[in-house]
Amino acid sequence: MGDKLICGIDEAGRGPVIGPMVVAGVWADEEGNGLLREMGIKDSKKHSKNRREELSGKIKDDFFYNFVVVQSGDIDALRETISLNDLEIHVFAKIGKSRRADMYYLDSVDVNEERFGQNFGKELGFDADIVSEHEADDTYPVVSAASIVAKVERDRLLEEIRKEIEPELGVSLGSGYPSDKRTRLFIKKWIEKFGDVPPHTRQSWKTVKKIREDMKQQRFF
C-alpha cells in the first residue's frame, strides 16, 4: 500500500432552495485510488440513482469517509455574516481536518479556483498539497467518490423532507431547486395555506424573496 494519503472533497446541494447542503470527503492511498478507477467511479451526476447508491455503499465499506450536513436554517444564519463560498470553505476545511492527508483535491465552487484552494489551506491549518479545480469531480476519482457520497446522503435527506411535508399539501415538492416550477409552486401554496415558507426552506434565497414579493403585489391588486 502506498504511503501517500489523498483526500477528495465535494458538495451536493449548494443551490437548492429547499433542503440541506452536504459536503463529503473520501480518503485513499495510491492502491485505493487505483481501486476507485477500477470501480469506474465518475461524477455523481453521470451515474443513475441506483448505481450511485451501490457505489456509495462500496465506498463506505472500503474507504475512510466523512460528511457534514448543513441545514437550511444554518445556511440562512451564516449567510448573514459570510458568503456562501466562505461557508463552503469552512465546511470543506472541517472535513479536511477530520483526517490529515498529504494532498487534497477540491471541487472548487469559487470562479477563482486558486483562491478557493488558498482559502481552504488557510482554514486547514497545516501544510498539505492542494489541488482546487472546477469539475474536479469529473477528473479525480477520489473527488468523484466524495461527490457520490454527498449526493446519496443529500437525496436521502430530501426524501425524508418529502415524506414530512408533501402530505400537508398533497402536491409534489419537486427537485427543491429554484429553477423547478413545481418547487416554486409548492412554496407558494405552502405560504397561502400556512402563512410562511415550508420547513427546510432557505429563506435567504432570492427565489423565496421574489415569491413573497409577488404574492404581496397580488394581494394589493
Report how far apart the termini are: 70 Å
Q: What is the count of structural domains?
A: 2
CATH superfamily of the largest domain: Ribonuclease H-like superfamily/Ribonuclease H
| Average residue pLDDT | 94
In spatial order, strands of the major sheet run 3-2-1-4-5
CATH topology of the largest domain: Nucleotidyltransferase, domain 5
Molecular shape? globular
Q: What is the strand content?
A: 5-15%
Largest sheet: 5 strands, mixed
> How many DSSP-defined strands?
5
Structural classification: alpha/beta
Number of helices: 8
Helix content: 40-55%
What is the gyration radius calculated from CA atoms? 19 Å
Write the layout of secondary structure elements.
Layout (H helix, E strand, L loop, with lengths): L5 E7 L8 E8 L1 H9 L10 H14 L1 E7 L1 H7 L5 H14 L5 E5 L5 H12 L4 E5 L7 H29 L11 H14 L11 H15 L1
Parallel strand pairs: 1-4, 4-5
Antiparallel strand pairs: 1-2, 2-3
Task: Name a few traits of the molecule.
221 residues; 2 domains; Nucleotidyltransferase, domain 5; Arc Repressor Mutant, subunit A; 8 helices; alpha/beta
